[in-house]
Write a structure and sequence with these properties.
With 635 residues, the protein is of the alpha/beta class. It contains 20 helices and 31 strands. Helix content is 31%, strand content 24%. The structure holds adenosine-5'-monophosphate-propyl ester.
């Protein structure tokens, strides 16, 4: 039996049982046999969910880039590590081998050092999906700097908030980015953000669009000449197992974004192990995850997990619709992609285009199809399975979160029989629990509850940067001694899990987590707005879309509602980013509130979903009359 590579269902159950009965022995064996360590650990695991504190492989010394790059040089030096596919299909792809990656990461690391970055410093990375993005993460890791990647679709305000929250000293960016036929002035966004960020001393700028940008004297530097002049050797900084590797922000239902902190050894072991098994990666496979490295999926399953296994990982700069909706399939055909990992929102958008664009290409290389980011609906699942996978490539519907670092519930392809819309079985080492609202664990099968995890796994986030109390409060205070995911789930008669969606005020739009509070804060900045409430409603491509109920200040003036809608969406776009724009905005005379002043979102959600046959108990409302008004005027 191999603990590292599971090939049969029987083996899954055996390994799973071992990982639950003897978690320390299990993870110790995996860590021992499959990674390189400068020094082994003194203690495999110590934990206490009440503090909360989790430490894996304490006392061990390592550098993750030695595991992701150096150790492959002897056997895979000429193998493609990163296969870059540009936005424009007429531009050549770029094959970056492990030995080229080694040199480029070292050069970049030397540039960081030469500009004052040291172990423990935070570096903000706001770079589009070009090779420099993956390389900059690894360069930070090489010297022990903590990277904080901000998705290059966020607005300047969102960038500034994230830079300041973690006191980044440096920003890495590009002149601009391509997204389909559009290009975006990234450097301009950074310039605006930095007006609010006095702590940033240096900005390194990669060239991509060759657009004209303003370079601020003494702060901004073109990256390429610095890389060209730098040495291709850079000794890896020796890190402690629990030293932070990166910060990645995720939306909360309230307040500012949470900077989730992931540490080095546990994250490495778990992302590598899950990558190997959840995708059944084999030596000559070409693996492609379509996510952006700005999200956790890209961190764990474009960069660290694949590279730790010596894999070839495709990195795509563009969008699924450019130059047409056949682009994904054209890339699969061109590079003989074997594992393909994408989000339900993309599947739905592509399914809408019909089968011709899929059938035009040879997809026979595909072996595994992955889905992540939101629940996959039955129709999308079947389309993916039948039209893309021709019924022979299993779908792995993988459930996990920024906070979990790696995949938590998923079928293992060719091992776990799949079931439409089910993420199926917990991954090795993962102990889920379903809870009722009173805090009792629901035992047995065929039940629905709130999804918690009872025992630590190696890649659990260790804290929220600068706010450990918020970490405790958000994830560990709802249920005693358990990590609370914020999701609801059901368990079927054979123990398969199906994720039913968020149970808090986070809405997932096109696979992106959006907290309602920050969007409402942005709307409320508009001088004409008195109050607002955001809810999600079903959308056939985005999964959920945003519906805003907005109450205006009573000034006696009449207002042009169409103009107001545009201004409100502009404000949201400026404060957060275009992804948070509202699909519908309804102006109301009031919002339904409880006697304690809480907005009753449950009612607003039902109205937005056009599901008003049973609004539930409205007797506790302070102002029941507004409900009828809102229903009458609903869009
Ligand atoms: O609600 C779940 C949903 O996405 C949330 C986590 O979002 P984020 O931190 O951005 O990470 C996304 C990529 C790992 C979860 O709380 N989610 C993620 N995957 C699935 C899912 N919901 C249902 N099925 C999934 N496979």
């Amino acid at each position: 039996m191999s603990n590292y590579h599971i090939k049969h269902l029987e083996e899954y159950y055996q390994v799973y049982r071992k990982s639950i009965r003897e978690p320390e022995n299990f993870w110790e064996e995996v860590a021992e046999e499959h990674f390189v360590w400068r020094k082994k650990w003194d203690n495999v695991l110590s934990w206490d969910f009440t503090k909360p504190e989790v430490k894996w492989f304490e006392g061990a010394k390592l550098n993750i880039t030695e595991n992701c790059i150096d150790r492959h040089l002897a056997t895979r030096g000429d193998k493609t590590a990163i296969l870059f596919e540009p936005n424009n299909p007429d531009e050549p792809s770029e094959h970056i081998t492990y030995s080229q990656l080694h040199k480029r990461v070292n050069q970049f690391a030397n540039v960081l050092k030469a500009h004052g970055i040291q172990k423990g410093d935070r570096v903000c990375i706001y770079v589009p999906m070009i090779p420099e993005l993956a390389i900059s993460l690894l360069a930070c890791a090489r010297i022990g700097a903590i990277h904080s990647v901000v998705f290059a679709g966020f607005s300047s305000t969102a960038v500034a908030t994230r830079i300041n929250d973690s006191d980044c000293k440096m920003v890495i960016t590009a002149d601009g980015s391509y997204r389909g036929a559009k290009s975006i002035d990234l450097k301009g966004i950074v310039d605006e953000a930095l007006e609010e960020c006095p702590g940033v001393k240096t900005v390194l700028v990669a060239k991509r669009t060759n657009s004209e940008v303003h370079m601020k004297e003494g702060r901004d530097l073109w990256l390429q000449p610095l890389l060209d002049a730098a040495s291709t050797e850079c000794k890896a900084e020796i890190m402690d197992a629990e030293d932070p590797l990166f910060i990645l922000y995720t939306s909360g239902s309230t307040g500012k974004p949470k900077g989730m902190v992931h540490t080095t050894a546990g994250y490495m072991v778990y992302t590598a192990y899950t990558f190997k098994n959840a995708f059944q990666y084999r030596e000559n496979d070409v693996y492609w995850c379509t996510a952006d490295i700005g999200w956790i999926t890209g961190h764990s399953y474009i960069v660290y997990g694949p590279l730790a296994n010596g894999a070839t990982s495709v990195m795509f700069e563009g969008v699924p619709s450019y130059p047409d909706f056949g682009r994904f399939w054209q890339i699969v055909d061109k590079h003989n992609v074997t594992q393909f990992y994408t989000a339900p929102t993309a599947i739905r958008a592509l399914a809408k285009q019909g089968v011709e664009l899929v059938e035009k290409y040879d997809l026979s290389s595909l072996k595994v199809l992955g889905s992540v980011g939101e629940p996959i609906n039955e129709e999308a699942w079947h389309w993916y399975n039948d039209v893309v996978g021709k019924n022979k490539s299993p779908i792995i519907d993988s459930w996990w979160q920024t906070e979990t670092g790696g995949i938590m519930i998923t079928p293992i392809p060719y091992v776990t029989p799949t079931k439409p819309t089910y993420a199926t079985l917990p991954f090795i080492g993962i102990q889920p629990a379903l809870m009722d609202e009173a805090g009792n664990e629901l035992k047995g099968n065929q039940i629905e509850g709130r999804l918690c995890i009872k025992f630590p796994w190696p890649s659990i986030a260790r804290t929220i940067w600068g706010n450990h109390e918020r970490y405790r409060e958000t994830y560990f205070s709802t249920y005693e001694n358990k990590y609370f995911t914020g999701d609801g789930a059901l368990r079927d008669e054979v123990g398969y899990y199906r994720i039913t969606g968020r149970v808090d005020d986070v809405i997932i739009v096109s696979g992106h987590n959006l907290g309602t509070a920050p969007i409402e804060d942005a709307i409320n900045e508009h001088p004409a707005v008195a109050e607002s409430a955001i809810v999600g409603f079903p959308h056939d491509i985005k999964g959920s879309a945003l519906y805003g109920y907005v109450t205006l200040k009573d000034t006696g003036e009449s207002r042009n509602h169409d103009n107001l809608r545009k201004e409100i969406n502009q404000l949201i776009s400026d404060r957060i980013g275009p992804i948070a724009k509202l699909d519908k905005i309804q102006f109301t005379n009031g919002l339904p509130k409880t006697r304690s002043g809480k907005i009753m979102r449950r009612i607003l959600r039902k109205i937005a979903s056009k599901d008003t046959s049973n609004l539930g108990d409205t007797s506790t409302l302070l102002n029941p009359e507004v409900v009828q008004d809102i229903m009458d005027e609903a869009l």
